[in-house]
Amino acid sequence: MRVLLDTNVVLDVLLQRGQWLAEAERIWQASAAGKLIVAITASALTDIYYVSRRLAGEQRARGVIRACLDALTILPVDHAILIAAFGRGGGDFEDDLQIESAQANRLDAIITRDSKGFSGSSMPVLSPSQLVAQLAS
C-alpha cells in the first residue's frame, strides 16, 4: 500500500506528540519494515521544518528533516500540481495540494487526523487508527 501522510501525522511521530504517538509510530515502523510506502509532499517538508524549529529548536528540526529524507518518499510539487490544487477551490490550499499530489502519484490513500480537510478527495482518506487496523488484518 502506498500512502500520503498528512503533516500532522509526521509531526506526531517525529516530535513525539502525546496521544497520537503510538499510531504514528506504528505507521512509521510498517514503512521501515517494507509493509507500507509512505510519502509526503516537498511542500509539507518545509512546513514540517518550520513547525519543528518553532516547537523544538533548530537542531531538532534538522534532525526531523533528516529522518524524513531518510525514511519517506518525497513527492515533487510542480506547476501542474499547484494549478490543479488551486482549481479545487477548497478551504485549505495545503490540503488541496496534498490531494492532487496523491492522485497524480497514484497513491492508495491519504492518512490524516483531519479528515474534513480532505472531504473532496476521490481517494480514500483514513485516520492513523484506520490504517493501523488495516495493517494488522
Verbal overview:
The two termini are 13 Å apart. The model has no long low-confidence stretch (mean pLDDT 93). It contains 7 helices and 5 strands; from the N terminus they run βααβααβααββα. The protein has helices at residues 7-14, 21-32, 42-56, 58-71, 79-88, 93-104, 128-136; strands at 2-5, 37-41, 73-75, 109-111, 125-126. α2 packs across α7 (128-136). The longest helix is centred in the middle third of the chain and has 15 residues, at 42-56. It has a single domain (2-136), classed as Rossmann fold (3-Layer(aba) Sandwich), CATH 3.40.50.1010. It is globular and about 35 Å long. It has a 5-stranded parallel β-sheet with strand order 3-2-1-4-5, with helices on both faces. The protein is 58% helix and 12% strand. With 137 residues, the protein is an alpha/beta fold.
CATH domain topology: Rossmann fold
How much helix, percentage-wise, in residues?
A: 55-70%
CATH superfamily: 5'-nuclease
Strand/helix succession = EHHEHHEHHEEH
**What percent of residues are in strands?**
5-15%
CATH class wording: Alpha Beta
CATH architecture, please? 3-Layer(aba) Sandwich
- Strand adjacency order, main sheet: 3-2-1-4-5
For the sheet with most strands, the description reads:
5 strands, parallel
Average pLDDT level: 93
The count of domains is 1
Number of helices: 7
* Oligomeric status: single chain
Shape category: globular
